Amino acid sequence: MQEPWIEVCDSNDIEEEDVIRFDYGSVTLAVYRSDKNAFYATNGYCTHERVHLSDGLVMGNIIECPKHNGRFDYTTGQAKKTPACDALQTYPVKVTGGKVYVRIE
């Protein structure tokens, strides 16, 4: 059975090229808005040392961890710069009626 879509925020709550933290139960996500006005979600913690990515810097489609500057492509989850080696889990996102929704699988 597929999990339901969970409302995260209004689409205007995330600036372009920015990220916010979203907690749902035991799951912590980072939710991004690209410079092309598309929305994405990944696991909220860096795979290197479990630092929250919402405190990081978004540059294009890259999120940079605030602790050791590891980088990930948040559109795919792929690790792009050491010390981050393991990919981030990504989650489906949709925008309906000005609201951002994520599906936590």
UniProtKB/TrEMBL annotation:
Keywords annotated in UniProt: 2Fe-2S, Iron, Iron-sulfur, Metal-binding
Domain of life the protein comes from: Bacteria
Record's keyword annotation contains Flavoprotein: no
InterPro entries per the UniProt record, alphabetical: MocE_2FeS, Rieske_2Fe-2S, Rieske_2Fe-2S_sf
Cited Pfam families: Rieske (PF00355)
PROSITE patterns hit by this protein: RIESKE
SUPFAM superfamilies, sorted: ISP domain
Keyword Cell inner membrane attributed: no
Span of domain Rieske: 6-102
Stated name of the protein: Rieske family ferredoxin
Phylogenetic placement of the source organism: Bacteria, Bacillati, Bacillota, Bacilli, Bacillales
